[in-house]
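User: Sequence for IclR family transcriptional regulator below. Tokens please.
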Amino acid sequence: MLDKAMSVLHAVADSPCGLADLCERTELPRATAHRLAVGLETHRLLARDGDGQWHIGPAVTELARHVKDPLLAAGASVLPRLRELTGESVQLYRREGTSRICVAALEPPAGLRDTVPVGTRLPMTAGSGAKVLLAYADTATQHAVLPAASFSDRTLAEVRKRGWAQSVAEREPGVASVSAPVRDARGVVIAAVSVSGPIDRIGRRPGARWAADLVAAAEALTRRL
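Assistant: Structure tokens for IclR family transcriptional regulator:
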């Protein structure tokens, strides 16, 4: 039952939804989905808006405040400087299975932005952050993702060789990005730090412009870890 409750939480985290959409996303029977959602609502892990749609509740944020995450602590020190250097949106991504999760994000103060809210789950099939995380993932994960990816295993080899990745209009039309791997004390890649923004501003060779800054930021994060 806990697994089913977690599937309800993840389904609502993707975007607010009513009971019909919740059943479709979780593939749970209507009565089961409703019972679980109401139970989660009772514990304030879910909440309902005026239209009756469920969204993530305040208890999730309250619990998150008690989490001591070294990566987020390091990001709080490094990401603002990276945003200042580039003037673009910056993010930190962790891999979870065959997806990547945005665990930290900062937006530029003005202009067009590539907004990726914290908690957003993205596929590993496109984008510079996906390339970085997949390049250092286990073989089974690579084999599961690559058949549907917009890049090849040769691209991943290039990422490992040069230490960063770029993408142009892969994840989203009109958006370009650059990413670099963040390692823990053992040298294991645990995250990807990214800069993203409109192609019209970043250009079609974002790596030439921002790769050095991304690698430096990734190294700074690694040192703090």
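The CA atoms of residues 48 and 54 lie 4 Å apart.
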